[in-house]
Amino acid sequence: MSTLRTNALEGVDAKNSITIVAGAGNVTTTNIEQGLAKVWIRASDAAVDADSLNVSSTTDNDTGDYSYDFTNAMNSSDYCPTATCVSTVPRIASVYGASTTQFEIRYHNESGTDTNTANSNMVHGDLA
Amino acid sequence: MATLKTNTLTGTSTAGSIAVTGEGNSTTTNLQQGLAKSWQDLNGETFGSRDSLNVSGNTDNGTGDYTNSYTNNMGSANYHFSGYTGDPGEKMGNFHISATGNKLAGSLRYQTNFVGNTSGGGSSMDTEHTFVAMHGDLA
Predict the structure, then answer these.
(1) Of A30, A97, A98, the CB nearest to B37
(2) How far is B34 from chain A (nearest CA, A)?
């Protein structure tokens, strides 16, 4: 096994683009930067940050209504957040707002009632 | 700080496998396995992709019923996907796969609908945003 040691990776032709061979066939490529999660957070039902990446602050807006601010902004609001409740009972997440600097999610139960829940969220997309 | 500049990374022993040291500085994880292989922000109301990775096209199968096709196929149908909806002002419900066979190596067909007790009564609905991300092995 060969080990390459470095602290940072950077594309040559484009600083923000490195192609990597991936897949079972060892042929297909994908893009490292595009594939990396840009934000993730595991938060309590009061939006307390247990652990996270690229989250500068959190806000408990209302019952089941949380906002997460980014340390480094996304380049547009057209990114892909995904969210899951951490609960023993069913909770459903919906994005209520997404900007370059934060996203807001709301959780409700199966009857549509806003409900607090611990939550886990992730963002894929392009950084600014 | 050492910065490695390159356009492409390829594993030495196995082209599609590179190990990186984890945050705890003791264990390793696999770089390729950790990357999302596809993601998308799709406008289900006007039916258009806002931004995506590895999505060659979308099909509007009906109300709240969409298919994503991949540019580069997954290695099998056994990949992970996560998805949910965003539609300010609406309380959306399930993001789900309604039939066996709708999750394939080359595509994913999924449905979105209201929660049960809103005015939508659990019916299918086109959403302003559908967000889907896939992790797993490319072909």
Answers:
(1) A30
(2) 8
pLDDT band at residue A20 using 50, 70 and 90 as cut-offs: very high
In chain A, residues with a C-beta closer than 8 Å to the C-beta of B92 are: 92, 94
Interface of A with B in 7-26 (CB under 8 A): 7-13, 17-26
As to burial, measured by CB atoms within 10 angstroms (0-12 exposed, 13-18 middle, 19+ buried), residue A53 is: middle
pTM of the predicted model as reported, rounded to 2 decimal places: 0.90
**φ, ψ (nearest 5 deg) of residue B33:** -65, -30
Residue ranges in chain B whose pLDDT is less than 70:
89-93, 116-121
User: b/e string for A90-118 if b means 16 or more Cβ within 10 A?
Assistant: ebbbbbbebebebbbbbbbbbebeebbbb
**Nearest Cβ partner of A21 from B15, B41, B132?**
B15
Cα gap A85→B133, rounded to integer Å: 17
pLDDT band at A57 (very low <50, low <70, confident <90, very high): very high
> Which residues are A127's β-sheet partners?
A74
Which A positions 91-120 lie with beta carbon below 8 A of chain B? 92-98, 108, 110-112
Amino acid sitting at position A42: R
Residue of B6, B31, B75 lying closest to A24 (CB–CB): B75
Model ipTM value? 0.85
Strands A8-10, A118-124: pairing kind: unpaired
